[in-house]
Amino acid sequence: xxxxxxxxxxxxxxxxxxxxxxxxxxxxxxxxxxxxxxxxxxxxxxxxxxxxxxxxxxxxxxxxxxxxxxxxxxxxxxxxxxxxxxxxxxxxxxxxxxxxxxxxxxxxxxxxxxxxxxxxxxxxxxxxxxxxxxxxxxxxxxxxxxxxxxxxxxxxxxxxxxxxxxxxxxxxxxxxxxxxxxxxxxxxxxxxxxxxxxxxxxxxxxxxxxxxxxxxxxxxxxxxxxxxxxxxxxxxxxxxxxxxxxxx
Length: 248
Ligand code: CAA
Fold this sequence. Notes:
Layout: E1 5-9, H1 14-25, E2 29-34, H2 39-48, E3 56-60, H3 66-80, E4 85-88, H4 103-131, E5 134-139, H5 142-146, H6 152-172, E6 177-184, H7 190-193, H8 197-205, H9 215-226, E7 237-240
Parallel strand pairs: 1-2, 1-4, 2-3, 4-5, 5-6, 6-7
């Protein structure tokens, strides 16, 4: 069997980079798709994954643009083969309290974090269903489960991803395609580093394991869900948050 092809949006980001590496180590051909305009980070990423050679490749995508997304995915499939695994890890924050939030801050976060999931899934789900195999993993957030002060936009988008995940999981369950979400807690990424020091230290003090998560600790769960053998897990959300939020 030829190698499974995995597309990771936000692939050069804090979590995305580790997800790409994990999937490559498990023998997948990985496309890290992200904004080409992040030129400096693209170059850095190239160095970080150099040891993987051809197995990890960067390709440009703007997940917020429906038509652009469809075109980018078509081009990627033409170059690397049809996509078996899609990981939606592209995400942004525009943190501010609702009373100060402008429409752009709301729309940007909804369009990228939630609209992006629609745009990419829409472009791959038919092919996956026809071929009888697919793995989709949406990277949500603990803040989509609990809400977070200063994140009405982000919490709404991340909570929306759960509803999307469950609905799509039902639609494609008989086609060999699974759709799940992973909800990371606070991890050692640039996004979390950007939180004000006093707020961040308060958050860390409330994480039962007493530290931030490592991106690799999220990536191994994504890798697990993407395995051929994980076909009976669908419509699920797996929290990976150091005990920050517990539910059943
Ligand atoms: N909890 C409780 N009260 C808070 C607060 C908080 N987190 N943040 C601010 N306040 C208080 C302020 O002290 C202020 O009180 P007073 O009016 O008595 O002075 C009041 O709320 C109103 O504050 P402002 O409207 O002026 O808001 P701000 O500009 O001070 O702060 C904020 C807004 C910067 C967004 C801040 O709330 C914050 O940093 N929140 C946390 C954001 C966060 O966790 N982001 C996560 C990013 S990482 C990520 O998203 C990854 C992931 O998935 C986990």
